[in-house]
Amino acid sequence: MTGLDAKNMSDDSDHKDIESLSNESASEETEEVYEVEALLDHRVSAKKQNTVEYLIKWHNYGDDQNTWENESNIFSETLVDEYWTSKGSSRDKFLKAESEKRKKRVKKPKTNVEVKDSKRQKAISTSSDTKLSESRKKKPNVNGFPNSVREPPPGLTWNDVSVVQEVFSDQYKKLFSQVKWSNGQITFCTNESLRKNCPIPLLKYYEAHLEFQAY
């Protein structure tokens, strides 16, 4: 064998190796592409706005292998056009309709049941307010406490109030004060009368019994 023959054999071997690698690479790339047999359904993508996903039936695969795929993964525009033609619609019409549905869900009007419940709640509230208003109209008995008065005892004036000893509240939240007069007599007076005619003793009582926040 001459040196030329050996060189030719080496070149042929290198050429075959390159061709083999090229075929293997092409085979690997071919295996990564799957053929779409049919588009079965569609929906709006939950991940990307204004994007459609299709339920795909893969060629040579069973229905249990069907998958939802983004429209960008479908390379056949003809297949997509045929699908929408069979639905009597289009991708853009579908997305527009879904957008309108989302807007309606955001601004959902009250149903008849909700309106009735609202009116019922309002009626209950109105009824309760009326009852409360009526109860407030019922003036409490001034004689809720023993010897309670709106005026000083006979022979005395409001200037004869010595000290407010205690403040009470009756069942109607009406406030009364236990008052000691200059002659030693003790009666119960309404706080309303004290505030109007003799506020100083009442203020002194509150100052002595309330806790004030330090500044």
From TrEMBL:
- In this chain the Chromo domain maps to 34-95
Task: Report keywords, A-Z.
Answer: Nucleus
| Membrane as UniProt keyword | no
Q: Key word Nucleus present in the record?
A: yes
* Superkingdom in the source lineage: Eukaryota
A Pfam family:
Chromo
Question: Basic and acidic residues: which segments have biased composition?
Answer: 8-19, 111-120
Q: Where in the cell is it found?
A: Nucleus
The cross-references to Gene3D superfamilies, in alphabetical order and at most eight, read:
2.40.50.40
Note the InterPro entries from the entry: Chromo-like_dom_sf, Chromo/chromo_shadow_dom, Chromo_domain, Chromo_shadow_dom, Chromodomain_CS, Heterochromatin_chromo-domain
User: Which residue stretches, if any, does this entry annotate as coiled coil?
Assistant: none
Region Disordered: which residues? Answer: 1-34, 95-151
Major subcellular location class: nucleus
Matching SMART domains: CHROMO, ChSh
Q: Indicate what this protein is called per its UniProt record.
A: Chromo domain-containing protein
- Origin organism is Phycomyces blakesleeanus
Q: What is the lineage of its organism?
A: Eukaryota, Fungi, Fungi incertae sedis, Mucoromycota, Mucoromycotina
